[in-house]
Design goal:
Layout: E1 2-7, H1 14-28, E2 32-37, H2 43-49, E3 54-57, H3 66-79, E4 83-87, H4 89-102, E5 109-113, H5 121-130, E6 136-139, H6 142-150, E7 159-161, H7 168-172, E8 190-194, H8 203-213, E9 220-224, H9 230-238, E10 246-250, H10 255-260, E11 264-267, H11 276-283, E12 288-291, H12 296-299, E13 307-309, H13 314-325, H14 328-345, H15 348-364
Parallel strand pairs: 1-2, 1-4, 2-3, 4-5, 5-6, 6-7, 8-9, 8-11, 9-10, 11-12, 12-13
Helix pairs in contact: 1-2, 3-4, 4-5, 8-13, 11-14
Length: about 375
Amino acid sequence: MRILYVITDLKTGGVPLHLARLARFMQAQGHEVCVASMGPLGPVADILSDTGIDVRSCEASAAYDMLAVQSLSQIISGADPDLIHSFLFHANIACRIACLLSGFDHRRLICEIQTVEIERRWHLIVDGWTQCLCRWIVGNSPSVIEHLRGAGRIERDRLRLIWGGVDVEALDGAVPVPLTQLQVPSGDPVIAWVGRLDPIKGLDVLIRAVAEASKHCPLLLLIVGEGELRSQVEDWVQGSGIADRIHMLGRRDDVASILKSADLFAFPSRTEGLPNALLEAMAVGLPIITTDAPGCRDLIQNERTGIVVPVDDHHRMAEAMLRVLGDAPLKVRLSQAAREHIWRNFRQERSFRQYAQLYGEATSARQP
């Protein structure tokens, strides 16, 4: 099968990395894989190219660059794929238009949304208007499916749920990185956060929570990731009163090793789809504190696989940090339950085989 994957960009982030893993899996199954980015190529393009996957850019200069859509139409015509799978709103809409321009059968176009978007409601409106120009819309958690069905008015028969997953064996094989290698003093409890520096991630809440908890117990916070909010996060750190105990590590390729060196994973997001960072932290056996936000609540059962606190409540998050770090039996129980839940239900290969099955359904129904 010839598969064309299309995504808004290939910057380092949960969805581009998910696409890279899925593309490499399909390539290993014998399929011919090509990836197109609407925007300029980013770091994930190198990951794909290193495994021999053809990566192209439509060089979009803005969200509404119709020349980029025309470029995508030409890529579709040249690649002549059996199936197209797109990710993220802008790529989804671009694919629907490009399929019209190129004459590609929209019944072989699968679009995917991996977040419950609350900032730009017009995305849902456009998605609903154009849903008939694709075969299915995939969501990676029940929260995403519910959001698309309710707020987006996507037809029920057009929605498909495929849970996300992680490579648990690879995560398990990671070796903890000594904190001294990260220029972080050892001895005090370490709280980790991983992700894209973005307003929806609640990093302002996390920093206030760590600052409040540090009044009772000296803590260290590791922030792993990059994003558009970096300068703002740096300002929050400097104004926290504990700037010397918050370490911004930037983009890292050894995330699993850093997670294995931490004592606790705190994830105060305001909305998610099915956060990969949370899946990975659970898989390596970290106790979890997160919010009752879409995506997070799909993974964490309060008091069983982690502690769930209200969104934007740094006081409750600080209390939860002190409680877990101060109660060794609770910490162990939450760690073991989180790890077991991911290893049993969220293996990456299981998820990818569900995609393969969906691809088979889409291409078997080909009609002139």
